[in-house]
Amino acid sequence: MSVDGSAHAPRRMPTMRDVAEQASVSPMTVSRVLHEDPRVSSTTRDRVLAAVDALGYRRNEVARNLRLGSKSGLIGLVVTNLANPFYSQFALGVEAIAGANGLRVVLTNTDEDPERERVLVEELSARRIDGMIVVPSGADHSHLDPLAPGGVPVVLGARPPSGLPLDCVLVDDFGGARSATAALLAGGHTRVGFLGLPPSVWTSSERFRGFCVALEEAGVRLESRYVRVSQRTIPAAEEAARALLSLRRPPTALFCANSRNTLGAFRAMSQVAPSTALAGFDDFELADVLGVPLIVAAYDPRELGRTAMELLLRRMSDEDPPLEPRRIVVPATVVHYGG
Amino acid sequence: MSVDGSAHAPRRMPTMRDVAEQASVSPMTVSRVLHEDPRVSSTTRDRVLAAVDALGYRRNEVARNLRLGSKSGLIGLVVTNLANPFYSQFALGVEAIAGANGLRVVLTNTDEDPERERVLVEELSARRIDGMIVVPSGADHSHLDPLAPGGVPVVLGARPPSGLPLDCVLVDDFGGARSATAALLAGGHTRVGFLGLPPSVWTSSERFRGFCVALEEAGVRLESRYVRVSQRTIPAAEEAARALLSLRRPPTALFCANSRNTLGAFRAMSQVAPSTALAGFDDFELADVLGVPLIVAAYDPRELGRTAMELLLRRMSDEDPPLEPRRIVVPATVVHYGG
DNA sequence: TTGTACGCGTTATCAA
DNA sequence: TTGATAACGCGTACAA
Q1: Where do the HTH lacI-type domain residues begin and end (chains A, B) (predicted)?
Q2: What pTM, to 2 d.p., does this model score?
Q3: Which of A164, A201, B88, B113 could form a disulfide with A197 if both were Cys (CB 3.0 to 4.6 A apart)?
Q4: Which CATH number fits the domain that encloses residue B225?
């Protein structure tokens, strides 16, 4: 019955040659029809289009791009943890701008593993993606060098480059932490705790710096026993907060360097010391319904993604006079949620 | 100075031919070295590897796949809204299994626009992706037919196929809604409201069906004035809930078909009628700290993604005896959060 | 108006 | 052990 001899489904995608045969013309003519070249008689065009339709032919973009010189129309996005709403919003921002420019996004997740990141970056560049946006998980960025032979345009997200002249988009971690801490100190606190991640995480160390400066400016002493910086999960943060609040002279206010720490702290204090004042970096859904006063340093992760993609577009197009690397800082604003 | 004449950076990625020239061998030999073909003398191999290193050569996967027969190593993921944590978790599950099988994921977002979905699907298949996982936004799935000429293996996520024999993974929307509603009714309520999306959204209509059956089983009458099904955002849901709770004889319990409606309802009731009982589909972060008793139908979106990818792998490999389409339903469990 | 020849970067096959 | 040739699907220059 069927022309193929195959009973139910085509095993192979039709090619231009298949279309050409079906329409009894040369592949060249098919190509012309698909490019809407006017120098084709309308009868042959109709025959070709009929064949295209009958076979369900679609141009092979891969072969096309190979011929045209390796523009894949794909950009790579390497994030550390897509489960974090921050990064999914970030990805969405990237995708929006990329899509508007005819580019698709290949998404990959590193789980904060530098080795995995290195492998993924290699692989993406072997696929001849046109550019990459990377949230680097380690301090060594040598595998990202766009000037290295075979290098690819790169923009870093959320963390600055180390030792390489790369574009990047950052949150104002320092300023946001400083302002939020200042707002917290406006309550007149003199014993303030800090919950965060190890200083090896760049954002966290910046936030700690902002915290310290705000204390200094308010003339409040920093007590190292009030500082805990190794909580990566909500339960760990709750544990650490509970420890602080159980000291003989506990802090009366807490600043948390990210939302997981803020949430852990909230859980601990609502049980142990409900009147503790709370502030943190990162806004989160439901911050307003916790039922306690809360100050957060908020920013727009989607905006961050959009900006990163815009930087990448600029970097991808304009190549020859190597552009000065740009560092764009997205502001963080202080938001007060009422109790 | 430099061999190219170019001053600062390579304009073009080195190819096998470049390496071959640099090492004074044929491209074929380079290929063999890269494939660790043993039939190469160690001296030539060293020369080739040195050239590879010097030039920073990386194999062009695109050309390679073209030669090998259009396996791109890429799968497409088409979701409706990545900003929804459900879909980012889903994507993460897909990505995990894909990555473990050497596949990368091209991520695209439709914003629930069927036309955009159609265009994206076309484009992905023109890129010769090896398969697709799609969360369809419309009822017409004709553009997804894998049996159509040029069709691609497809698995649907979260919504069932209409009129096509496609694999899909679903949440037990009906059962979850029924169980959660039953748990709600255990409180002895006789006036129960429903907040959700229009029945055109499949998941929502299933959840409504579960809700209705639970009412029936408990001998509770369904009152249509207690049903509101057009809230897509938290504020809209809050508004609708407020309207219900302001009726002369308001419902004493509310069932919400998704987390946005649950959150809106929570906001409304905490102001208007704090003693209203609340249940909803979808778990969410912080459900336990709202300070009111809450029943949710919970499931694991990441598991859903993993399962979808596993179905796709199976579909992609085993081609010839067209497999029976499979429908896998992931269970939803009822969780009680205390007040 | 249509077709031929070649190239994009890689690899399978066969010959040397 | 190595190389020449052809081919994957498509596009461009040129010829017919």
Answers
A1: 14-68
A2: 0.88
A3: A201
A4: 3.40.50.2300
